Amino acid sequence: MKIGYIGLGKMGLGMVSRLREKSFDIVAFDPSEESLKEAQKAGAEAAASAADVVSKLEHPRLVWLMVPHQVVDSVLDEIVPQLEKGDTIVDGGNSNFKKTINRAEKVEEKGIHYLDAGVSGGPGGARSGACVMVGGDADTYSTYEDLFKAIADTNAYGHFGASGAGHFVKMVHNGIEYGMMQAIGEGFEILKKSEYTLNLTKVADLYNHKSVIESRLVGWLKQGYDEYGEDLEAISGKVSHSGEGLWTVETAKEMGIPVPIIEGSLKFREESQENPSYTGQVVSALRNQFGGHEVKKKKE
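User: That's the sequence. What structure does it adopt?
Assistant: Structure tokens below.
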């Protein structure tokens, strides 16, 4: 299978490398020349623009978008006029599911298929096997199931329903992630400030050996301590958020569902910009470990 791939950030480049190892032919584009060169090293063919990606594919085409949600529409404006009936677009980024539904309707009016794929696992998962949540037409999904299987870890992909379902499931996943990270951060601040002189690295490691809260997140915290030390002095206590937690809270309110944990974790991130804390440093360290987010303290 030969596919187009637009977006070679932390996730995209890893996915392209993985797909090349799975014998997929890739035509790739990214505004970054450095990223394009890295994709070429992995065996991908470089394109000069998003539209050029389309021109280098044969009908029926599949173009995978791995770009920030803010630029999806501009990319679609560039490539949709170049596509034909029967071609397929996959939005693999963290787009708002409502916008995904609207985009799918507009694109499908032209006879072009539109799938949404929420991808979890961070850069490491993108390279070694991610968790992939897909929405859109079931027959189109079945046509390209081998692609999703190749991107995902073992048994780590699935189709969840009509357009938007994949991004909806991923949105809620990220909302849950906010709450879990917040609880870990708060708990370890209590441990750090207790009357005991605790080895937090050892605590994190022990928690991750058959305790009830054993998880990848706790394992990543142990890695963060190994890398930055338990005081996390180099890590900012100001925690950023990329949108999915906010979308989860807004959607829950529309549905009349109380989500005090997720809402509280979102509020904490917003308030942390003025009130950094050790809890924020723990959450930031976790974001760095699994997502590659830049979280070091900025020089005054």
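DSSP finds 14 helices and eight strands in the chain.
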